[in-house]
Amino acid sequence: MSQALKGQRILLCVGGGIAAYKSLELVRRLRDAGAQVQVAMTAGAQQFVTALSFQALSGQPTRTSLWDSAAEAAMGHIELARWASRVLIAPATADLLAHLAHGLADDLVTTLALATTAPISVCPAMNHIMWKHPATQANLATLRARGVQVIGPEDGPLAEGESGPGRLSQPDAIVAALAGAVPADAPVQGPLAGLHVVVSAGPTYEDLDPVRYLGNRSSGKMGFAVAQAAARRGAAVTLVAGPVTLETPPGVTRVDVRSAAQMRAAVFGAFPADIYIGAAAVADYTPRMPAPNKIKKSSESLALDLVRTPDILAEVAASEQPLKLVVGFAAETENVAEYARGKLIAKRLDLIVANRVGIPDGGFESDRNAMTAFWKEGQREFPCAPKTELAEALVELIGERLRA
């Protein structure tokens, strides 16, 4: 059990019920299992247990308000949502379950439940009649259908002197159930722990008219794999994705865009960050003025008036953002090493990853690739392998370069 939870970043959300006192022991058990714990409380929870008690046990400030001026950019729900690798709500009252099922967000806890991409577990605790009510059971069915893990409740004596189902599960049982739900490839403590990593991935589409666009063959697979590998090593990851149909990696915050201009805005909007990895294939040119209506076939040839798009990677590297590392990608059809080192110097990057495209079993649209990473003092070859494996190796290299 301790191995399953070791390095996990667990956000414990405490609801407003008398069982909130058990959550104090739950913090201790989670930390004994090797997890990092931060606590968020509803207003009701604060009527039963103090925030200071949780702070003393977790070693972290307890969050109680959606309007925390001390939080990152005064947006505590976003900060916490990005930090968590799992969200645990204990106790989860009938009212809190109803809010979650219906997507309501009127306090810190319910808002971060909507803002997180981390797996959510709920531990119900309430009067046995409330537990059996059809509305509560319907809300639980909705949450289960969304993939929420439900732990408990137990059958036994309740605070009001009655007995029945609705008693919060014991802390040891909750920790065991949580450990059993953690997949083998879940995020672990690693060299990127505590860092915010922004990854851009996929193509951009530059509209010619309401029907047509200029695009490229990037699938986004490499960038998505890099985002997942970074999250597994403890980073809070924001993934800015061009138009692709890939699943969002676990624990990753995703922002979907279409054009180069939108991608630039999303990347800079995700800052501040510690690392930027520009894996996207951003269009170099875009129509000066997209046609408002479909361009009709009226002649044997068509001339397009194109203008340069912003060089997002170069702008990030030249910006005043306090980044620890800027990583670029270079997809080339020839002279791969020469062009890659040229981009490394011209754009003032810390690291550039180059690969050859337009070849069988590699490059765009393929699940496999081969690549070479270059930095000022050296390089490293990565032979042909699945992109998921390449991403793991690349993120390990990024961790090494951080320590260099």
Structure, described:
α4 packs across α6 and α10 crosses α14. The protein is 33% helix and 24% strand. The strands form five sheets. The protein has an eight-stranded mixed sheet with strand order 12-11-8-13-16-17-18-19, sandwiched between helices. The mean pLDDT is 88. It is an alpha/beta fold. It folds into two domains: 2-181, 3-Layer(aba) Sandwich (Rossmann fold); 196-403, CoaB-like (Rossmann fold, 3-Layer(aba) Sandwich), CATH 3.40.50. CTP binds at residues 284, 294, 310-313, 329, 343, 347. Residues 192-399 form the DNA/pantothenate metabolism flavoprotein C-terminal domain.
Topology:
Elements: H1 2-5, E1 9-14, H2 22-32, E2 36-41, H3 51-58, H4 76-83, E3 86-92, H5 94-101, H6 108-115, E4 120-124, H7 128-132, H8 134-145, E5 149-150, E6 154-157, E7 163-167, H9 171-181, E8 196-201, E9 206-207, E10 213-214, H10 221-232, E11 236-241, E12 252-256, H11 260-270, E13 275-278, E14 285-287, E15 306-308, H12 312-318, E16 325-332, H13 336-346, E17 351-356, E18 368-375, E19 378-386, H14 387-403
Parallel strand pairs: 1-2, 1-3, 3-4, 4-5, 8-11, 8-13, 11-12, 13-16, 16-17
Antiparallel strand pairs: 6-7, 9-10, 14-15, 17-18, 18-19
Helix pairs in contact: 2-3, 2-9, 4-6, 5-8, 10-14
**What proportion strand?**
15-25%
- Which second-level CATH architecture of the largest domain applies? 3-Layer(aba) Sandwich
In this structure, how is the largest beta sheet organized?
A: 8 strands, mixed
By secondary-structure content and strand pairing, the structural class works out as alpha/beta
- The CATH topology assignment of the largest domain is Rossmann fold
| Strand line-up of the largest beta sheet | 12-11-8-13-16-17-18-19
Number of helices: 14
* Gyration radius over CA: 24 Å
The rounded distance between the terminal residues' Cα atoms is: 34 Å
CATH superfamily of the largest domain: CoaB-like
Domain DNA/pantothenate metabolism flavoprotein C-terminal: 192-399
Family: In the N-terminal section; belongs to the HFCD (homo-oligomeric flavin containing Cys decarboxylase) superfamily.
GO molecular function, one term: phosphopantothenate--cysteine ligase activity
Cofactor: FMN; Mg(2+)
